[in-house]
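During the reporting period the student researcher (J.K.) took over the structure-prediction task from the postdoctoral fellow and processed the backlog of single-chain submissions. One of the processed entries is reproduced below for the supervisory committee.
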Amino acid sequence: MNELAVLDAIQLMHTPWLNSVVAAYTSTSNAGQIWILLGLVLALIPKTRRLGIAVLVALVIGAVITSGIIKPLLMRPRPCDVNPFVDMIVPRPHGSSFPSGHTTAAFAAFGALLFSKGPRPLVIAVGIAAALMAFTRLYCYVHYPTDVLAGLIVGLLAGLAAAKIVESIVQRRHRKRESAV
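J.K. obtained the following structure tokens:
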């Protein structure tokens, strides 16, 4: 599969209003802001505190794996560097292309909610938001499809790990309380 051909085909969808919407949405995750905010809001509400903590832990795990380990190791050039003739709708991101950090963060948040058995409407909404975030990275010509796929996988695995970590801590605290009684 020629990944540049896929990205070039997506460029045919560009319209001024869609470019504005996509650029605005993708920028909400330049530093993971939208997903961090989601985790913080959930963590502040007693009923959803565990979910919020799981989201925040997943984001940290995903960022360490993606930006701390894989990107510096592989240093894959971005499609906008390989084909500089494409009109960019966002500033060229720093760093290498593989895997997509935006996609990792989005799917880490989704995975944490999914594997922590969060409320179905919230899981679905965040899943849709994550899929849209992944698509924006292709639309903006800053990631290859395999970058996005790898970000999705790393994000889901980070979400699963975070859900397991938080559940383990909750169970350990519960056992401690029971033994103290």
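The committee noted the following: The first helix runs from residue 3 to 11.
J.K. will present the remaining backlog at the next meeting.
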